[in-house]
What we know:
This protein has a six-stranded mixed β-sheet with strand order 2-4-5-7-6-8, covered by helices on one side. A two-stranded antiparallel ribbon has the order 1-3. By secondary structure, it is α/β, with parallel strands linked by helices. It is built from four helices and eight strands.
Amino acid sequence: GEVELVGAVGHVIDTLRPMANELGVEIALTAPEEPVQVVGDVDELIQVFSNLIENACKYGQTGKRVEISVSGSEPGGAQVSVRDFGPGISKEHVPRLTERFYRVDVETSRAKKGTGLGLAIVKHILTRHRARLMIRSDLGEGSAFIVKFNDEKPGHLSPTPELYQ
Ligand code: ATP
Ligand code: MG
């Protein structure tokens, strides 16, 4: 079917707002006026955005923002980006983040509950959607997880997240 990304992301934000409030995190959304349609399964994509936004709130910094942006189909395809201002993730962990049960073993994430399955599910769903997950993270600066749809360039449909910059 068709999924409208601005509405789907807005729905996830509404659902997670109580958790964000409890953590002292403000969620900000930037989105175009016009709808952004992609081909996909709405329940699965909601699961993707829930996982990414929940992680950003959980591992982000109390009192800081989580910035979400949805952008439209031109020029390079629709994308959704979820950015936090938490401790960030060091480069050696990035390629393993989407492995089942993998959690970064630092005090900051050890203290938070989780099974380490969220990003494995995200990867699985996005691969089925021909979408790509990109991660940019700098220690001390925070992290950005970007979902890029219609990523059909041969060799760029990577099953693991990529560092880009
Ligand atoms: P689950 O999602 O199954 O409840 P989880 O959040 O630990 O558990 P994932 O969502 O797969 O599992 O994330 C894996 C690990 O990646 C986390 O435990 C955390 O260490 C790290 N991580 C994920 N997102 C972020 C982020 N935004 N900032 C810092 N570390 C992160
Ligand atoms: Mg998670």
